[in-house]
Specification:
Blueprint lengths: L13 H10 L7 H20 L19 H15 L4 E6 L6 E2 L8 E9 L10 E9 L8 H5 L4 E10 L3 E6 L4 E7 L4 E6 L10 E3 L10 H11 L8 E2 L5 H11 L2 E4 L12 H14 L3 E3 L19 E4 L1 H16 L1
The protein binds 1,6-di-O-phosphono-alpha-D-fructofuranose (AFP).
């Protein structure tokens, strides 16, 4: 193994990167820096926990059928405990909490955090990739927040990111000025910059979707996928599906192509949550030059009506996303 000091990435740790971000802004309060640093601590804590899955009893399968896996609750607790200490988080919207979580100490805190503490839970026991997603929104209202406040369309997403726990632990972050990737070096316990100013390919050659739902899809989606498989004179696409949105999104971001979870007859609005998953990843893909749509509207422009609403999603390379939209439009005109 190469000496860590020889690593070309050793000069830029995530901690240093976060600190540099702060220096770009005139009205520095340190709160944003502290918040991002906390997300880094969360990533390390969840990563450390997942490395022991299967070895440690409490992280295992649910005791009763239909009981959520304990590990989801632990991941959520890690987020809540660490974020609550920052002093700037008012409320947290978590995929695993039916209600908005008030941070008692700092209810008026200026940030709202949307989180999916553990995405792709069913992959965990098998040692397959899984992840966490977060979005940081700046509140427009300085009063004690309510649910309505959490849904206020004027709240501005100022940062988002995800952690992927796979063969390595990866942290991808945007603060609204491009997208950067960091990998955790377990030898020194630091995230190091490994991909700077990521740009997604204009067009890829792979699609990522659960084709098991094919019989339940609209004709537009069926036809789109059919054309990727049997293209007229062009090369066919490859199919890739991890079953964890973070894993599928990460590959799409780095290699180009499209990830989609369309609505279907059983789930007209798909399965994936708008606030805790789709908006944070849409912010990232947009920052990387990509696109994200529900088939009609840009995901970032959808005004949420409830904290756990789901949405169909088509996300990835701009040309690929546009092509799906063309199929949807064509079928609507018929
Ligand atoms: P879990 O976290 O319950 O495993 O769900 C994962 C997920 O929300 C998302 O990460 C995947 O892309 C999607 O569901 C997979 O859903 P299908 O099994 O319906 O394809």
């Amino acid at each position: 193994m190469a000496n860590i000091i020889q690593s070309p990435n050793y000069h830029m740790t995530l901690s240093k990167f976060i600190f540099n971000e702060e220096l770009k802004h005139e009205k520095i309060t340190g709160e944003f820096t502290e918040l991002l640093s906390s997300c880094q601590t969360i990533a390390k804590a969840i990563s450390a926990m997942l490395r022991r899955v299967g070895l440690n009893e409490p992280y295992g399968t649910p005791e009763k059928e239909k009981e959520p896996m304990k590990i989801q609750g632990i991941a959520q607790d890690i987020f809540i405990k660490i974020l609550s200490e920052t002093g700037s988080v008012g409320i947290i919207i978590s995929r695993f909490s039916p209600k908005v979580i008030d941070v008692e100490k700092t209810k008026k805190g200026k940030y709202i955090l949307v989180i999916d503490p553990l995405d792709g839970v069913t992959n965990i026991e098998l040692g397959l990739p899984t992840g966490s997603i977060f979005g940081i929104m700046l509140r427009v209202d300085s009063r004690v927040p309510t649910v309505e406040d959490a849904l206020n369309s004027n709240n501005k997403m100022v940062a988002s990111g995800y952690m992927m726990y796979g063969s390595t632990t990866i942290f991808v972050l945007t603060t609204g000025e491009g997208v950067n990737e960091f990998i955790l070096d377990p030898q020194i316990g630091e995230f190091l910059l490994t991909d700077k100013a990521i740009r997604i390919a204009e067009k890829g050659m792979s699609y990522s979707v659960n084709e098991g739902y094919l019989a339940l899809w609209d004709d537009a989606i069926k036809e789109y996928i059919r054309e990727r498989k049997f293209p007229d004179k062009k090369k066919h696409y490859t199919a890739r599906y991890v079953g964890s949105m973070v894993g599928d999104f990460h590959r799409t971001l780095k290699r180009g192509g499209i990830f989609m979870y369309p609505g279907n007859k059983d789930q007209p609005f798909g399965k994936l949550e708008l606030m805790s998953k789709c908006k944070p990843l849409a912010f990232i893909v947009t920052q990387a030059g990509g696109a994200a749509s529900d088939g009609h509207t840009n995901i970032l422009e959808i005004v949420p009506k409830s904290i756990h609403q789901t949405t169909p999603i088509f996300i990835g390379s701009p040309v690929d996303v546009n092509e799906v939209l063309e199929f949807v439009e064509k079928h609507q005109k018929r």
